[in-house]
Design a protein that fits this description.
Layout (H helix, E strand, L loop, with lengths): L3 E4 L7 E3 L5 E3 L6 E7 L2 E7 L11 E14 L3 E10 L5 E5 L4 E6 L4 H6 L7 H8 L1 H4 L4 H6 L11 H13 L7 H8 L3 H12 L3 H18 L4 H7 L5 H12 L8 E5 L6
Parallel strand pairs: 4-10
Antiparallel strand pairs: 1-7, 2-3, 4-5, 5-9, 6-7, 6-8, 6-9
Helix pairs in contact: 8-9
Length: about 270
């Protein structure tokens, strides 16, 4: 796969700040197409828009029939057709693709760990990992089918109980680790250690991802931003907006044209 990398350090910035302090990219375009949501998985297909610099706790795979441009936090960017970005790594979509697939995988998924053999924060490594989609083609359907939740039978019972209880607690507002620790009769510090070790994410980061995924689902299903925010347990739409900018580099409204589907290929 051919791609080009260049530095943009010192170039005029494409981003700015909104009135509430959020970074935005001038000319940011919305995302259109379909969205598949499952536990630990989000798949967007269609036209991928641009984003500001952001990071999230998932492994991100982006592939397109035409070239798109991805940038890292060091000022480098690359024009390519596929990338694999490790969790908690700052990046931005400088120029989107008209026919693309964007996949977010929870880091505990076995296939997610295989996709990031060399975690790095530089765009050239992301693009190199993306070549696995051309030199040894991996179909999106195969990748999604491999994104099944891990076998949790060997996990500590307290962690399994927390994961089972969390979805039902989101709409009630703050979810405190101390409350769950009392439920499972462990100290807060012990539960925090077990949770991070077995899930692959700190407790607060995991809850934030669940809230964001649920809010996106509600908004795509036709709820207002305020309704989606409250339904996912955010304080208000401004809180949802801040978290969405932090995790996806765009406002929730940018995803308003996505249609929810139950399976890949649904129209």
């Amino acid at each position: 796969m051919q791609y080009s990398t260049h530095r943009t350090v010192g170039a005029p910035s494409l981003s700015g700040r909104t009135a509430d302090g959020q970074e935005h990219v001038t000319g940011t375009s919305g995302w259109t197409g379909t969205m598949l949501l499952r536990p630990g998985l989000m798949v967007l297909t269609g036209e991928v828009g641009t984003t500001a610099l952001h990071a999230h706790h998932t492994v991100q795979i982006m592939k397109s029939e035409s070239a798109f441009c991805i940038g890292d936090a060091h000022g480098a960017s690359a024009s390519c057709q596929a990338v694999v970005i490790p969790p908690n790594t700052s990046h931005r979509v400088v120029a989107g693709g008209a026919s693309a697939t964007l996949i977010h995988l929870a880091p505990e998924a076995a296939v997610a760990r295989i996709l990031c053999p060399e975690p790095a924060d530089t765009v050239d490594v992301w693009v190199r990992h993306g070549t696995m989609f051309s030199s040894d083609p991996i179909g999106v359907a195969a990748l999604v089918s491999g994104a099944v939740e891990p076998d949790r039978s060997a996990w500590h019972p307290a962690v399994r109980r927390c994961l089972a209880d969390l979805p039902g607690l989101l709409a009630d507002g703050p979810v405190r680790l101390s409350d769950l620790a009392r439920r499972v009769r462990l100290s807060e510090s012990r539960l925090a250690h077990l949770f991070s070790a077995e899930v692959g994410l700190p407790f607060r980061a995991y809850v934030r991802w669940l809230r964001m995924q649920h809010a996106v689902r509600l908004f795509a299903a036709g709820r207002t931003l305020t309704e989606a925010a409250h339904g996912a347990g955010f304080a208000d739409s401004a809180h949802l907006n801040r978290v969405c900018h932090s995790m996806f580099g765009a406002a929730p409204s940018q995803f308003g044209k996505l249609r929810l589907v139950d399976e890949l290929g649904d129209s």
